Amino acid sequence: MGNRGMEDLIPLINKLQDAFSSIGQSCNLDLPQIAVVGGQSAGKSSVLENFVGRDFLPRGSGIVTRRPLILQLVNNQAEYAEFLHCKARKFVDFEEVRMEIEAETDRITGSNKGISAIPINLRVYSPHVLNLTLIDLPGMTKVAVGDQPVDIEQQIRDMLLQFITRESCLILAVTPANTDLANSDALKIAKEVDPQGLRTIGVITKLDLMDEGTDARDILENKLLPLRRGYIGVVNRSQKDIDGKKDIRVALAAERKFFLSHPGYRHIAERMGTPHLQRTLNQQLTNHIRDTLPGLRNKLQSQLLSLEKEVEEYKSFRRP
């Protein structure tokens, strides 16, 4: 398959994903995908917003992501977004994208902070993105707040496992550097389903918030808790930056400067940061789709055959 063919792989899976979402089921097909997991304030939203270069995800305290968000990034000259549930509408204001995610979440889950496994499909077209599809999942939590169900921790865990147990799913495990890696919620749940660390990609956030004199060098060099696909460090905007509407491009320049000037990370600066993470994920997802495509094709064909057989049987069905 030539390079052009490789570039078409992610859009091809996007089409399948949309088709299955439209009919409300996955036909038991495990589509190759990347699921984003992490604790509630690990910085998942900031990582995804940095990819897009826009603020578009709901924010606040407690569980903000309450339904899986299938985020399809499509490299395109014009910049706009569209949802599968209102395809006729093009969103050019990303504040409206956020409001639509909130409204669509409440429509299914109600406003009592409950969760639902029914995904929201959002496609963002932009010259600043690489073709990439990620599934943003609710952040792991320990305690129920307000009128949340008391078993919310278990509910979220079950939902995450629904996605990451599948062999075809790559796991983007997001962990803040200012917490003990051994206690990372994301790495713990990833290890349960991927004990060899073959399909887990580690992302370490909040490197700029570590205590003075400490760094995450051993983690980022893949020495502490090794993963086959390694770790990539990123520096997101702070809450103050977000509240002050700091431009994401300015923040990315600051991130680059941080890695190039930090004595602990200078030697690996080229393998760190948001742009490198986005390129790596694009590459890994493309390769992953290429590897799983033959099996996927066989499965689709056999399902098609059995459906056709069923249709034939119904054709000769006579009412008594």
Automatic annotation (TrEMBL):
<keyword id="KW-0254">Endocytosis</keyword>
<dbReference type="GO" id="GO:0098793">
    <property type="term" value="C:presynapse"/>
</dbReference>
<keyword id="KW-0378">Hydrolase</keyword>
<dbReference type="GO" id="GO:0005874">
    <property type="term" value="C:microtubule"/>
</dbReference>
<keyword id="KW-0505">Motor protein</keyword>
<keyword id="KW-0547">Nucleotide-binding</keyword>
<dbReference type="GO" id="GO:0005737">
    <property type="term" value="C:cytoplasm"/>
</dbReference>
<keyword id="KW-0342">GTP-binding</keyword>
<dbReference type="InterPro" id="IPR045063">
    <property type="entry name" value="Dynamin_N"/>
</dbReference>
<dbReference type="GO" id="GO:0005525">
    <property type="term" value="F:GTP binding"/>
</dbReference>
<keyword id="KW-0493">Microtubule</keyword>
<keyword id="KW-0963">Cytoplasm</keyword>
<comment type="similarity">
    <text>Belongs to the TRAFAC class dynamin-like GTPase superfamily. Dynamin/Fzo/YdjA family.</text>
</comment>
<dbReference type="InterPro" id="IPR027417">
    <property type="entry name" value="P-loop_NTPase"/>
</dbReference>
<dbReference type="GO" id="GO:0016185">
    <property type="term" value="P:synaptic vesicle budding from presynaptic endocytic zone membrane"/>
</dbReference>
<dbReference type="GO" id="GO:0008017">
    <property type="term" value="F:microtubule binding"/>
</dbReference>
<dbReference type="Pfam" id="PF01031">
    <property type="entry name" value="Dynamin_M"/>
</dbReference>
<dbReference type="InterPro" id="IPR000375">
    <property type="entry name" value="Dynamin_stalk"/>
</dbReference>
<dbReference type="InterPro" id="IPR001401">
    <property type="entry name" value="Dynamin_GTPase"/>
</dbReference>
<feature type="domain" description="Dynamin-type G">
    <location>
        <begin position="28"/>
        <end position="294"/>
    </location>
</feature>
<dbReference type="InterPro" id="IPR030381">
    <property type="entry name" value="G_DYNAMIN_dom"/>
</dbReference>
<dbReference type="InterPro" id="IPR019762">
    <property type="entry name" value="Dynamin_GTPase_CS"/>
</dbReference>
<dbReference type="Pfam" id="PF00350">
    <property type="entry name" value="Dynamin_N"/>
</dbReference>
<dbReference type="GO" id="GO:0031623">
    <property type="term" value="P:receptor internalization"/>
</dbReference>
<dbReference type="GO" id="GO:0003924">
    <property type="term" value="F:GTPase activity"/>
</dbReference>
<protein>
    <recommendedName>
        <fullName>dynamin GTPase</fullName>
        <ecNumber>3.6.5.5</ecNumber>
    </recommendedName>
</protein>
<dbReference type="GO" id="GO:0005886">
    <property type="term" value="C:plasma membrane"/>
</dbReference>
<dbReference type="InterPro" id="IPR022812">
    <property type="entry name" value="Dynamin"/>
</dbReference>
